[in-house]
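User: Hi! I have a protein structure encoded as tokens and I'd like to know what sequence might fold into it. I'm fairly new to this, so please keep things simple.
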């Protein structure tokens, strides 16, 4: 029978494959930083929110994702607002400070913190530490970060923190959200570009490989397999970010600029009013050439963002 080591007892080592991946990540970070590309961070954060919710078994509609990207709150699921808020303030999240856990709990668990008491978690086949050891293990993890700060790469911390939070499992649900925040905060400390990678998207797409890497680490008693998996995700995320940066960089057309100049501040306009104001006849042309580009550029807001196709929909110029 194959021996399985509890994940939280696994050691970690660095092999050639991991070093190669770290070098690749460093090269791509340097390239993207030098190019000084413009990324639609609000849209990336909204999409990452949807994928993190998906990892916890919650679905969210595209209209609500768009609402989040415009800084609007959604009624359901309420966790979406908390996740988006945490992502938008990720630069102030300090993974070296154990108080960051408390800040996360206050923001995300609005109905009370679901501290794990059981020895097992649904859909998590690995042995986890008893509840009595959680605080000790988390403090030990932070002590390690503190003692190695400046001596070890934040890339290593990013991977290790994700692995350890998942392994310790302090909550009865949503452990992956905290693990993700820790890893993204450390990645951001390594390079600002890494705060914007679509990591949750790739985690959601490759959940099976995530479980396989954890299983292999448990079998070997060494988290090297997970390290390789995680660094491959980060490396792929940089490729996706480069693609998004080119594809989603928004240039506002003269048509949109002309519409915005004519819209009074603080006033909502219906489609008929915009057609008359712009001397247009086609509603399709209005939406394709004016309204949709302005919404994508986050320059106007809708009166009813949860129902984009509402016949009574009205649009207002967004204050800068």
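Assistant: Happy to help. Inverse folding works backwards from shape to sequence: for each of the 320 positions I chose a residue that suits the local structure. Here it is:
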């Amino acid at each position: 029978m194959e021996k399985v080591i509890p994940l939280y007892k696994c050691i970690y080592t660095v092999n050639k494959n991991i070093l190669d991946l770290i070098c690749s990540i460093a090269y791509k970070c340097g390239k993207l930083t030098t190019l000084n590309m413009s990324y639609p961070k609000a849209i990336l954060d909204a999409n990452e929110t949807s994928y993190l919710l998906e990892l916890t078994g919650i679905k969210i509609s595209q209209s609500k994702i768009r609402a989040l990207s415009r800084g609007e709150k959604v009624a359901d699921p309420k966790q979406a607002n908390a996740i988006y808020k945490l992502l938008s303030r990720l630069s102030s999240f300090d993974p070296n400070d154990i108080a960051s856990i408390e800040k996360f709990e206050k923001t995300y668990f609005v109905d009370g913190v679901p501290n794990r008491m059981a020895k097992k978690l649904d859909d998590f086949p690995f042995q986890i530490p008893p509840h009595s050891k959680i605080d000790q293990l988390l403090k030990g993890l932070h002590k390690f970060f503190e003692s190695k700060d400046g001596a070890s790469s934040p890339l290593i911390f990013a991977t290790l923190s994700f692995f350890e939070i998942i392994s310790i499992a302090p909550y009865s649900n949503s452990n992956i959200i905290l693990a993700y925040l820790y890893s993204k905060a450390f990645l951001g400390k390594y390079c600002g570009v890494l705060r914007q990678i679509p990591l949750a998207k790739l985690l959601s797409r490759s959940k099976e490989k995530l479980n396989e890497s954890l299983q292999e680490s448990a079998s070997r008693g060494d988290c090297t397999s997970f390290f390789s998996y995680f660094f491959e995700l980060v490396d792929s995320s940089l490729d996706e970010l480069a693609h998004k940066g080119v594809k989603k960089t928004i240039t506002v057309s003269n048509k949109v600029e002309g519409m915005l100049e004519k819209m009074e501040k603080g006033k909502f306009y219906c489609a008929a009013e915009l057609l008359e104001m712009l001397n247009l006849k086609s509603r399709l042309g209005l939406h394709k050439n004016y309204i949709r580009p302005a919404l994508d550029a986050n320059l106007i807001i809708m009166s009813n963002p949860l129902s984009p196709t509402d016949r009574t929909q009205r649009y207002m110029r967004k204050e800068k």
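A useful reference point when you look it over: The longest strand covers residues 314-317. Feel free to ask if any position seems puzzling.
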